[in-house]
Amino acid sequence: MLAILFPAIDPVAIQIGPLAIRWYALAYLIGFVAGWRYCIGLAHKDDRPPTAVDFDDFLTWAVVGVILGGRLGYVLFYNTAYYLNNPLEALAVWHGGMSFHGGLLGVVTAIVLFSRRRGFSPLALGDLIACAAPIGLFFGRIANFVNAELWGRVTDVPWGVIFPGERAGGLPRHPSQLYEATLEGLVLFIVLAILARRPSIRNRPGRLAGIFFIGYGISRIVVEHFREPDPQLGFLLGGNVTMGQILSVPMVLVGIALIVIARSRAAGSGAASGGEASQTGARDGG
Fold it and tell me: Per residue in 50-78, is it b (16+ CB within 10 Å) or e — as a string?
């Protein structure tokens, strides 16, 4: 059976005296900075809010939303019983344990609150954040691979990887982290980048965010078929369903709803513009 032995990668990326910067922390940092710069670039291409200044101010909100939401989501969705018995451990973020779906809820909350404070549509801000989100997802999944965590199920494919640790069992497994980095990160980023260039898409707030929700949800549901479920949960609903799939189904539904809302608003504004034009024409003709 062909397999690839996991390379010996030091989880510490940079060591400066007692200060150790791990790859996972570095991935978060790169994701935030690169996403922030990308959003600023998109904002410069449009005169409407949110502006580049808005994104400068929103960065802190996004960081807080991701970290608090991601940690709370992991505690509630993936390991509730453990943290009920060890409540102080919920604060120990450095021990690991973050949920994308929880982080998403945290960012959505931050987007709504920040947009209301600035007086523009949350959908407009959400669209640009959605375009940048795959950047962070890509680096986050690469960090998962480097940390030899969240690996896939046992497989006989020639690119199967033998991950270290007793839990991995010394058997070749799907490098599901790389599958997710490709679908949730690279592919989704390219799709959104292409669509963001089209005025018919960009001028309908909520559409890009809806496409992101659908794209991520479908990608996650597919990759979960290759990913080993969390040991404390296993398979759910009496079958082959994982928590990641359960949490991703509402994402697809929300994405569809956002696209419908964007379309209906565009149709409404078009009808209103048409009515105004007709009234103007009638006045001119009179």
Answer: bbeebbeebeebbbebbbbbbbbbbbebb
